[in-house]
Please model this.
Amino acid sequence: MVDGPLVEIAVRLSRCLAEHWPHVALVIFTRECSGRPRKVAGPAEIVDRIAIAELEELKATVELGDSRADEVVLAGARRWVWAVRDRCDTLLVLMPRRRGPVPHREELVAVFGMVATSISQQVAQASPDYLAESRAASTARARAISELAAAHEAVLAGLLVTLRAPGLDDGGARAAATSAASAALIALRSGEATDRALSEEPPAAAFERLHRELEPLLHRRAIIAEFEAPLVDGRRLPGEVAHGARAMTQSAVLVFTAQPDLDRLRIAWTSDSDRLVVDLRDTAAGRLDSSAMTRSLEGRARTLRAELDIEVVPGWGSRVRMRIPLDSPVAATEQAELSSLNRREREVLARVAAGMRNKAIAHNLGIAESTAKFHVANLLKKLAVPSRGEAAVIGMRAGLTATVDSVQQ
Model:
């Protein structure tokens, strides 16, 4: 059941459970898998509609190491489910063929415990296969989130403009509809932010987790460790980068500690808008096994397109640096496209990404509406996209932001 690609583990688990826990669909939900937090098996018309917010709400009602049988809202409808929350905080949801309590409850909890532990270990090890799958999933997921957000915001913004048209009567109905559309617009943006938060880690928090994991090992070896954390407010790391950087740092530290004379080690992370740099230095006699270090790191480095530098100076010490890009190749291409935009066009694109129409952009920037229309036409041409929606997707993925108070005008 646990032997095979992580992306297929829900399908394997579903086959394993089918005899004693017959079900229509199965979902595994874990925050640890940043690129694909939902692992599903069953009809697409059900599993593809299950929202992360629904799973979060269900998980909050199940105690760690316990199970629950009840009717809940899932995939937009009320459904009977069997839910198990492992002590790793991973959730299993089964949609049984019949209503009733969870059969063989203790056995189901135990079986899922093995699966949850396997998932946790695979994520912690951050193998090249896992990192490649996670990066592909993160890219696809980010694209889908941005495209949906852009499309929905355009529809809701248009609805608000229509409802505010002075020619409409029945002010009470218009006010109620306006309020509902405004709430939906806010909820949509909030949902996008929540979904992105699940797939990213602040660099300082990711490093603090690494610190906690490494400190016991270095303490037992009586090695003085200097940990230098990245800036607290740095760009958030994609989940696969955070997992991969921790795993690569840990692997490198193990090779460093194989030196019998090692007594001091410096471990530093720095990050900017483009990359994370992992820097390790020692004060040993310069006898680091560079071949072992390369073997330990090259698989993950290749998957994450990281640059790897290993420097060993006999009598002085050793240094290992890893430069890991934060963006996937697709995102990097889009950043290159943005470089063709001038400052004003970037400002306009940020407001297009926020869902503003030309009139609102003009008001926000203090320019004529005809000028705003001219800038929008120019940036569409430079980005080689046919619509505002596609331009908005590029702007959102590039992290362009704007004050959106004027979006309702």
